[in-house]
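We modelled the chain as a single entity of 101 amino acids. Its sequence is:
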Amino acid sequence: MIDSGCDRAGQWAVLASGMPGDERALPIRADARVLGATLKAGQSLSTVCAMARHAYLVPTLGAVRVNGERVDAGSGVAMTDEALLVVEAIDDTEVVMVEVF
């Protein structure tokens, strides 16, 4: 689920976007979207990446597993042509993801 509002608890929220339909987000001049989510330890969040060509995800707090790979706070993971993205919180965490179309 992607939410254009401010609530990031357990779901993606669009923070900034240059994509149609994301009018509630901070506008940017790029074919891209910046998303944020907060997860409690043990929670997971998934999204289908059908439109995005590239994505970059960074946990700002705690550690997560992204498609099974551990990513610690401040580290990032770049993805290209992934069909499905699964983020599993190891610790309470906040993640930021940039999708490029």
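As a brief sanity check on the tokenised model: The mean pLDDT is 92. The longest strand covers residues 32-39.
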